[in-house]
């Protein structure tokens, strides 16, 4: 970071942007020239400046100018401020709010934290992020969980689109400045989402000054990565700015026949229509070409087999291809009153096709198993739109703020799938899977009708929302809000030629409070809700009611060293009701909405910078799950995959001055206790702890290099288990990744 960038970063952290905020109100007063600053709420700042104006007759009048606005709208990106901390987040709040002022569990992973640990995809990052659990698959195809539930969407600047492992829509991180993570339901702004929370990716934006870098990386197992990132003004006055990020990854993987190639192109324009109005346009294309690995089988008793870690139960022709395109448009305006308006839209188009073989059952006494297969084509289109208006205002000498808005989203998915339990005439030896003859699994299913499914479904939702942060006292913020939603669900089974539809309205409330104990600590509590439409039918053939989730959370947050280090201790309880459950009579042609789950736990987290040279991410998660009423015969076994105790730690230190000037060292631990698979017989995996390390050196102010050592003690462990035939994955063996970066 340049000296000018550092100065701007210090300015923002010291709130020196407050006098620049939009809006002025003239109030006659008497007194000498002075300046005062009122307390902040959700980042809102009121600056009062007294000036003297000379009028006819030699008299003078003192006027007070009051400027109101949310300074956090002016916060710099994390790539410029540096370190592991940021001032605020927008996830789950719609308007920027300091982390202490959000009464839920929020984490922000900055650009420095992403780069120090060589995270290329969201699932790689989630593996080492406190409070998150990743069910391992190929990078970019894993399932990401929090508090027992999978994240089924990811937002780009607050605009959602579906995310799933089966479609490979887990995003790469090169186009993004930081990742904001909310744990637990947030139905106020994402009402038809999952119970686990929201992931919001904040885009890298064009810059007023020219900047750029090239990064190259090489590691064990043929890992090759290259990235180019260029940004700067396009017009001479800087009113039009652009950014282009291009990256490519090619990784052979430590498992045989498991190549993983990914490439991304991101382009963005910011256009200042006037000093207070900006139009932003962006395009992101992500492509994946993967030779699929679906995990290892167990023996007939569900016991894990001592395979070599490179062992593959996949054919040479296993393939997964996907491409996604995102178009984003955003118009923002700062009003003279200090208000802020935003209208934004995102269109996403995803296509995926895959055809691969995997173990169809447990190993027999001869070390053989059947070869199963799946082939599919998926087309997914989504549109999301959001319009919001926020306004700070004074109450009882304090600053409050409200936001009102409306949003819309529509998800359309078409999918054809073919499945087979046996690709061969008999069992296949464990060492012969690579030689299985090619089969077009979807094509064969189309022709025979066996194992064939074809469907399209649509989720459409309109919503009106409002949220108020009210400060009756300087140290107390009362937060309340509500959302009215109308949704339509349509499901068409093209094989049976049947359709299911459901339309309904729902009100989603939200409540919270934050009490500042002192300058560094705040107590908080909140109640949040969410609902999730389902496509299963009841005994009458109608789509059943949505699942409903409620969460109660309380805790204490801390902010230290001028906000550079954030801490949180929280406890939560979450209820999930109306999950589609099999009826007691054993019928398989309809369901009943009786599934109930109670999840409770606690989290401890520390993220940020202890000093200008020392950064840290640390967290502990405790999770206790109780299935009150199972929704399937397997007993909602996904929750067995969630360990009860998880620990994450990463820290990095940069030396300045002396013989070690320019040296960076880092290290971390990821640990969890035992967990189980989701089917009978249950597959059990022991707990593990993996240690990583990093060393880097700044050769010049522009050229930097680093070595990342992953699993330095070469711990052999299973990162995920599933059933007797599949989804049992070894963790990555010891490996080293070298990186060079040049900034210009």
UniProtKB/TrEMBL annotation:
Pfam families with a match to the protein in the record: Plug (PF07715), TonB_dep_Rec_b-barrel (PF00593)
Cited InterPro entries: Beta-barrel_TonB, Beta-barrel_TonB_sf, Plug_dom, Plug_dom_sf, TonB-dep_rcpt-like, TonB_box_CS, TonB_sidphr_rcpt
Keywords: Cell outer membrane, Membrane, Receptor, Signal, TonB box, Transmembrane, Transmembrane beta strand, Transport
Name of the protein described by the UniProt record: TonB-dependent siderophore receptor
Keyword Cell cycle set for record: no
Topology in membrane: Multi-pass membrane protein
Domain TonB-dependent receptor plug: from-to ranges: 99-198
Compartments, record wording: Cell outer membrane
Similarity section: Belongs to the TonB-dependent receptor family.
Motif extent (TonB box): 64-70
Region annotated Disordered, chain positions: 36-62
Lineage of origin: Bacteria, Pseudomonadati, Pseudomonadota, Gammaproteobacteria, Oceanospirillales
Signal sequence coordinates: 1-34
Entry superkingdom: Bacteria
Compositionally skewed regions (Low complexity) per UniProt: 36-54
Organism expressing this protein natively: Kushneria aurantia
Domain TonB-dependent receptor-like beta-barrel, first and last residues per copy: 271-712
CDD domains according to UniProt: ligand_gated_channel (cd01347)
Transmembrane segments: none
């Amino acid at each position: 970071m340049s000296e000018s960038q550092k100065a701007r970063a210090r300015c923002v952290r010291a709130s020196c942007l407050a006098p620049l905020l939009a809006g002025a109100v003239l109030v006659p007063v008497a007194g000498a020239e002075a300046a005062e600053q009122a307390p902040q709420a959700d980042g809102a700042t009121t600056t009062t400046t007294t000036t003297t104006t000379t009028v006819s007759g030699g008299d003078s009048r003192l006027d007070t100018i009051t400027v109101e606005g949310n300074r956090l709208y002016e916060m710099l990106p994390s790539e410029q401020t540096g370190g592991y901390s940021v001032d605020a987040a927008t996830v789950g709040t719609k308007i920027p709010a300091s982390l202490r002022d959000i009464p839920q569990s929020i984490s922000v992973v900055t650009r420095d934290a992403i780069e120090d640990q060589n995270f290329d995809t969201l699932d790689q990052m989630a593996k080492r992020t406190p409070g998150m659990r990743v069910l391992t698959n190929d990078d970019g195809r894993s399932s990401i969980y929090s508090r027992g539930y999978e994240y089924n969407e990811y937002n780009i600047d607050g605009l959602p689109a579906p995310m799933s492992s089966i479609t490979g829509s887990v995003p790469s991180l090169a186009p993004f400045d930081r990742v904001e993570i909310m744990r637990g339901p947030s139905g106020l702004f994402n009402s038809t989402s999952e119970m686990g929370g929201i992931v919001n990716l904040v885009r890298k934006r064009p810059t007023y000054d020219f900047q750029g870098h090239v990064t190259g990386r090489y590691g064990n197992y043929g890992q090759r990565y290259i990235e180019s990132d260029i940004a700067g003004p396009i017009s001479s006055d800087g009113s039009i700015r652009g950014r282009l990020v291009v990256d490519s990854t090619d990784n052979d993987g430590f498992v045989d026949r498991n190549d993983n190639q990914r490439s991304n192109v991101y382009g963005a324009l910011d256009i200042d229509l006037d000093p207070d109005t900006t139009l932003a346009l962006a395009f992101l294309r992500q492509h994946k070409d993967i030779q699929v690995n679906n995990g290892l089988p167990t023996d007939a008793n569900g016991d894990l087999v001592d395979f070599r870690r490179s062992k593959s139960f996949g054919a040479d022709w296993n393939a997964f291809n996907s491409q996604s395109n995102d178009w984003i448009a955003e118009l923002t305006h700062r009003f003279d009153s200090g208000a802020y308006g935003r209208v934004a839209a995102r269109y996403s188009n995803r296509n995926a096709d895959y055809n691969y073989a995997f173990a169809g059952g447990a190993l027999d006494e001869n070390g053989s198993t059947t070869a199963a297969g799946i082939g599919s084509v998926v087309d997914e289109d989504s549109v999301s739109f959001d319009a919001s208006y926020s306004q700070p205002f004074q109450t009882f000498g304090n600053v409050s703020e409200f936001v009102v808005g409306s949003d819309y989203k529509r998800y359309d998915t078409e999918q054809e799938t073919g499945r087979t339990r046996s690709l061969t005439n008999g069992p296949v030896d464990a060492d012969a899977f690579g030689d299985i003859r090619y089969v077009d699994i979807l094509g064969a299913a189309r022709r025979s009708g066996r194992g064939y499914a074809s469907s399209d479904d649509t989720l459409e939702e309109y919503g009106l929302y409002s949220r108020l942060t009210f400060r009756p006292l300087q140290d107390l913020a009362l937060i309340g809000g509500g959302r009215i939603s109308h949704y339509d669900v349509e499901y068409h089974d093209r094989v049976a030629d049947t359709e299911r539809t459901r339309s309904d309205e729902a009100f989603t409330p939200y409540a919270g409070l934050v009490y500042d104990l002192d300058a560094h600590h705040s107590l908080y509590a909140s109640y949040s809700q969410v609902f999730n439409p389902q496509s299963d039918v009841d005994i009458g053939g109608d789509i059943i009611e949505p699942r409903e989730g409620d969460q109660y959370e309380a805790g204490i947050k801390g902010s230290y060293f001028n906000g550079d280090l954030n801490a949180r201790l929280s406890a939560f309880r979450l209820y999930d009701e109306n999950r589609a459950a099999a009826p007691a009579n054993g019928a398989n042609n309809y369901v009943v909405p009786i599934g109930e789950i109670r999840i409770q736990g606690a989290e401890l987290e520390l993220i940020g910078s202890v000093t200008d040279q020392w950064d840290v991410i640390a967290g502990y998660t405790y999770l206790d799950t109780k299935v009150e009423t199972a929704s399937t015969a397997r007993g909602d076994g996904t929750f067995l995959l969630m360990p009860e105790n998880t620990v994450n730690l990463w820290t990095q230190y940069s030396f300045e001055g002396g013989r070690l000037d320019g040296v960076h060292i880092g290290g971390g631990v990821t640990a969890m206790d035992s967990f189980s698979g989701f089917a009978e017989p249950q597959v059990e995996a022991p707990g593990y702890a993996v240690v990583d390390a990093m060393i880097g050196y700044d050769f010049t102010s522009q050229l930097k290099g680093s070595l990342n050592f992953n699993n330095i003690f070469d711990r052999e462990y299973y990162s995920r288990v599933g059933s007797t035939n599949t989804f049992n994955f070894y963790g990555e063996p010891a490996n080293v990744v070298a990186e060079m970066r040049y900034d210009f």
